[in-house]
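User: What would this chain look like folded?
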Amino acid sequence: MQWMVGDVKATTGLKGVGDFIGKTIRGKMTKESSIKPEYTGTGTLVLEPTYKHILLLDVDEWDQSLVIEDGLFLACDSGLKHKAVMRSNLSSAALGGEGLFNLGLTGQGVIALESSVSREELIEIELENDELKIDGNMAIAWSGGLEFTVERSGKTLMGSAASGEGLVNVYRGTGKVLMAPFLQ
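Assistant: Here's the prediction, encoded as structure tokens.
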């Protein structure tokens, strides 16, 4: 927060010791801030300047469940529930260099993400019982209902190594993936 005017109040959003412990653990797992300030009331709230792009995503348009890449969370509506989303297999964390958990949001409301790429440059892929394979961490957000794994690009380890691709991020099912045109 840089400044605010009007009847705007800032709180920690903590609901006791148990809530603090849970948010601290989730923050460590998802590499996001443990304590996110909550602002309520009417007025104007101005955030600190950034050299990145601010993306506003309506979680309702993602079947009310959205998972985001580490480090992109900026703010969201208070009605959205936060949770740590564990990868579907350990290889996706260990081999993919992606970490074991991501931040997931469920419910109705808008989330603000901080991106090095403008919304116009991002690529939105819609999957219908299909799969998307991406070489690198170009996906910045995906529907919570998609299965995410890291797999060999070819049928065999030798084939994957020979192709030069190695491991790829795989998103399976029905939902959407928001992807940058280059590695983040």
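The first strand starts at residue 3 and ends at 11. If you want, I can go into more detail on any region.
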